[in-house]
Amino acid sequence: MNKLTTLLLLLALFLASCQQQPESQQQTTQTSQKWWKEAIIYQIYPRSFKDTDGDGVGDLKGIIEKLDYIKSLGVTAVWLNPIYSSPNDDNGYDVSDYRNIMADFGTMEDFDLMLKGMHERDIKLIMDVVVNHSSDEHEWFKQSRSSRENPYRHYYHWWPAEKGEPPYRYSLFDEKGDAWKYDSLTNAYYLHYFSQKQPDLNWENPKVRQEVYDIMKFWADKGVDGFRLDAFQFAAKDTTYPAFPEGFEKNFIDYYAMQGNLHEYLQEMHREVFSKYDVMSVAEGAGRNFEDAHNLVDEDRNELNMAYAFEGVDIAKPDGYSLGHFKEVFTRWDSAFAEKGWLSIFLANHDQARLVSRFGNDSTVFRAPSAKMLNTFILSMRGTPYCYFGDELGMTNIGFETIDQYQDIAAINGYKKVKHQGGDVEKYLKDLKVSSRDNGRTPMQWNDSEYAGFSTAKPWLPVNENHKTINVAAQESDPNSVLSYFKKMTQLRKDHPLLVYGDYEIIEPEHPQIYAYTRKLDGKGMLVVLNFSAYDAGIQLPATLLLGDIMINSEPGLERRGNAMTLRPYQAVIFALN
Ligand code: NOJ
User: Fold this and answer.
1) Domain with CATH 2.60.40.1180 in the chain
2) How far is the CA of 500 from the centre of ligand 1 (A)?
3) Residue 520 CB: number of other CB atoms within 10 A?
């Protein structure tokens, strides 16, 4: 055997041994390092962030103006809600041109400058991709509805009226709850899972899929770093439109999510787009169960990078939630993804009321402590944290009283539906006051001026009156503010990979007030202790936990003797473990 052959043989043996390595010895997906696992994502609702042209609507130049602020938070990526051309039936989630910027928000030049500014600051940009549906004002739909023979006809779902009424489909935003809309132009119904102005795209048509991949490549070529796929779990459909059982809408996810060839489409998207760029990918929703969620994100499937599951954020109902339920849900999800797959961690977004009003306590006394505690939770769990703009200040619900105060189509059409069905309108408004999406969409509170420094004109949605005291300017100069604490917490996460990759274990799961858990990696550990209540809370931690330094404490001190301690209301403490 000559030297080269020996070398090749050795190489072949080496490669074979790598392949045969038992799974337990391989690096698990959980610890394999990825920038998107280490990312701290800051979600910006552009309409509400900062207006620079005085029209009362936020814009891209506003984001550019605030890039240093965003950087100062310690976040490493921004997820932007849709910024494409749109008639704004659903604030940009109804796209009329996927390759253009919404006039309200600025121009493509602004976009390029914004992206450049982010990259100069080492901040990545995640774009929202809204392709379960488009706007009815998109050229594709205009063509599609114009005649049954039009080449774009099958870009959407049509049901010819001569076949009778289509089988009932539930719409989330329709004022009658009906997802089929009759269009007399071609005597047919089109499908819209959301509003009538959001017709569903026909993913079963390969041309539609190719259009979408081309759009995604257009943005990836511009240098964006990731995609969030809006409502994508609903994209694939059985186009024979079978009848669903009566009342299916109560569990519509079971009938709408992960249907047909959805996984094939994602694998195709992966081949066509994700595999060609260093971009992260996350879909809104994670299917009906863990199996669906794993099928979406396990690395060997080549679909998406991380799941964005709703069970956590759905825990809080208008009348509150129980800590036991909260712990159980987050522990169950963590353990289901301990070995494989990756999760998003979030408690708020643009579809929810404010973090502190929903999961904490927005009274004058407890707002700041509970906001700090909740941010500690989000930034100390395993998974990629998503922090919604304004939650770094502890912004609260605005709490509208009457229906005319709302801008959100979901709220307005929901109201019409309850009225139409003869339901309890009072109860609807009462629940809406605490749970409406508009609570989370009021303008960013930059300072105590008339429009909170968001705009010089009357904003599209009123600023919360409490901006006089809750605002960036006030909190930046206060070392004990929610904002200052938030920055310390992002730094702690960035300094300690164990907060990203470390194993999670719940401690004293039955404790009625405290949520405590450890995070451990490579012989190092931390203990997170969170008081979720408005009362002092004592806990005796197991002697096996050797508590070291306090890494962060949301309150000035801690009453403690060894492993026994009493946390003040909503206090959050993280210890190093020896
Ligand atoms: C989910 C988005 O998060 C929400 O804001 C939007 O209304 C629907 N999808 C429809 O696009």
Assistant:
1) 503-577
2) 28
3) 16
CATH of domain 503-577: 2.60.40.1180
Q: Which overall architecture, per CATH, does domain 35-134+207-490 show?
A: Alpha-Beta Barrel (3.20)
Using CB distances shorter than 6 Å, the residues near ligand 1 are 90, 93, 130, 194, 230-231, 284, 350-351
193's tokens = 């899972």
Ordered DSSP codes for 521-562: ETTEEEEEEEE-SSS-EEEE--TTS-EEEEEEESSS--EEET
Contact 567, 527 (CB under 8 A): no
Q: Whose CA is nearest to atom 4 of ligand 1?
A: 351
Residue written as tokens 């205009």?
142
- Determine whether domain 139-191 maps to CATH 3.90.400.10: yes
Q: Which residues have CB under 8 Å from 126's CB, separation 6+?
A: 41, 77, 78, 79, 80, 224, 225, 226, 227, 228, 280, 282
Residue closest via CA to ligand 1's atom 3 equals: 351
Q: What is the pLDDT of residues 158-183, one digit of tens each?
A: 999 999 999 999 999 999 999 999 99
Closest CA to 438 of 399, 395, 391: 399
Distance 231 CA to ligand 1 centre (A): 7
pTM over 0.85: yes
Report the C-alpha gap between 168 and 243 in whole angstroms.
Answer: 7
Q: Record the tokens describing residue 533, joined without a space.
A: 């209540």
Instruction: List Cβ neighbours of 240 (8 Å cut-off, separation of 6 or more).
Output: none
d(CA 84, CA 95): 6
What's the pLDDT score for residue 17?
42
Compute the distance between CA of residue 193 and CA of residue 187 in angstroms, rounded to an integer.
20
**Which of the residues are catalytic?**
230, 284
Q: Which atom of ligand 1 is nearest to the CA of 437?
A: 5
- Can you read off the two tokens belonging to residue 155? 């870009």
Amino acid sitting at position 79: W
List, for residues 425-444, the tens digit of each pLDDT value.
Answer: 999 999 999 999 999 999 99
Ligand 1, atom 6, residue with closest C-alpha: 93
Three-state secondary structure call for residue 210? helix
CATH 3.20.20.80 residue ranges for the chain: 35-134+207-490
Residue 376 and residue 488: Cα distance in Å, rounded? 10
> What is the best residue among 48, 194, 228 to mutate for testing ligand 1's pocket, by most ligand atoms within 8 Å of CB?
194
Q: What is the pLDDT of residue 386?
A: 98
Ligand 1 centroid to Cα of residue 461, in Å, is 18
Q: Which stretch of DSSP H or E encloses residue 383?
A: none
pLDDT at position 120 is 98
Residue (of 192, 206, 87) closest to 133 by Cα position: 192
**Chain centroid to CA 259: how far?**
22
Q: What distance in angstroms lies between residue 559's CA and the mean position of ligand 1's atoms? A: 45
47 CA to middle of ligand 1, Å?
15
What are the C-alpha distances in Å from 85 to residues 39, 47, 137, 147, 199? 28, 13, 10, 25, 16
The ligand 1 atom at the shortest distance from the C-alpha of residue 410 is 7
Spans in the chain with pLDDT lower than 70? 1-30
